[in-house]
Amino acid sequence: MKIQNPHDKFFKETFGNLAVAKDFLRNYLPQNIMDIVDINSLEPQKDSFINEELQEVFSDMLFQVDINNKEGYIYFLFEHKSYPSQNIAFQLLNYMVRIWERKMKIELDHKIPVVIPLVIYHGKETWKIKTSLGEMIRGYEDLPEEIRAYIPNYHYLLYDISRYSDDEIKGDAQLRILLSIFRDIFTKNSEGIQEAIYRAAATLQELNDKETGMGYFETFMRYVLNAGPQLTKNDINKIIHKLETTYPGGSDTIMTLAEILREEGRNEGLERGLEKGMERGMEKGMALGSKNSKVEVARNLIKMNLNLDQIVESTGLSKKEIAKLIKEMSN
Asked: HSE of 228 in the Cβ direction (CA atoms, 13 Å)?
C-alpha cells in the first residue's frame, strides 16, 4: 500500500532517533558552531511550522539545544522537490518567527532564543541559490554598509545531498544510509536503486544490534518502494534472492522483508486492476471537486508569493490557469 509523503515519513522516523540527529550535527555542523553547541543537551520538539499547503514538498524538525550556555534551537527544513525553492530564505524566516512567537506566547518572555536554520535538499537540480535573506532583497548588496545594518538579513546552512560523493557521506550506519538514499532516490534508475539497497544491507551489518538494524532496513525498504523508481516483479525477485543468499544469518528478517517485497508486487498489480475498473466511474465525479480544491491551494500559494513554477508543481494546474488566477486576485 502506497505511503503518503514517504520522504517526510522516512526523514522524521530517522531524525526522530536522537542518536542519528546528533550524528548528523557532529559530522556536518561547522566547527565554530559545534564549539558553542552542547550536543548532549539536544532534545526533539513536537512542533511543525510548515503551512499545510507546503507539507507535500517540505518537512521540518525542531531541536532544543544549549547554544553558548543558553537555551537555543536548531531547525531542520527538508526540501524534497526536484528543484530548489527560490524563496527558501523567506520561508525559513517565516518559520523562525513562528518559533519565536510561540516562545513569547507560552513563556511570556520578551527575549527570544537563538535559532540556527539548516536546509537539507536532494533534488535533481543543483542548488544555485545564495544562502542569505539579503540575496532576496533587491539592491541589498548595493547599499552602504551602515544602511544595511537597518535591513534584516541572516544566513542558513545548506546541505545539497544530491551532490555528495560517497566520501562526503559521513557518520554511523543509519545516517549514511539515509543520506545515500536521499542522494540517489531522484537520480538513479531501477538498477541504481537495487545497488543502493545492497549497499544499505551491507552497511547495516556494522550494527551490533541486528534487530534494530533490520527494523531500520524495513523502514528504508518501504521508503524506496514508495518514493523510488518503479521496480518490476523481476527486480523484486532479484532483490529477494540477493538478500537471502548474501545475508543468511538474518534469514527470519529477510523472509519478513521478502514478504513485504512480494506484497508490494501483489498490491501494485491489484492497484492497477482496481484503478482501471474504478477510474472511469470516479473521474467525472472527482474532476470538478479536485479542480476546485487545486484552485484554492493555488490561491493560498499566490498569497505566499511562491513563483509560477512552484505553484504549477504543487497544484497540477497549468501556467495559463494560474496566471488567470493571479490576474483575478489583483483586481
From this structure: 27
Q: Is the Cβ–Cβ distance between 277 and 283 less than 8 Å?
A: no
Q: What is the mean pLDDT of each run of 10 residues along the chain (331 residues)?
A: 74 91 97 97 88 74 96 92 82 93 87 95 89 94 95 95 92 93 90 91 80 80 86 83 69 57 54 43 45 73 72 80 82 66
Helix/strand/coil percentages in the chain, nearest 5: 60, 15, 25
DSSP-assigned states of every residue in 159-180: EEGGG--GGG--SSHHHHHHHH
Q: Which pTM value belongs to this model?
A: 0.74
Rounded CA separation 219/10 (Å): 7
Cα–Cα distance list, 253 to 9, 181, 211 (Å): 22, 21, 9
* CA diameter of the chain: 68
3-state secondary structure of 127: coil
Give me 131's grid cell.
544562502
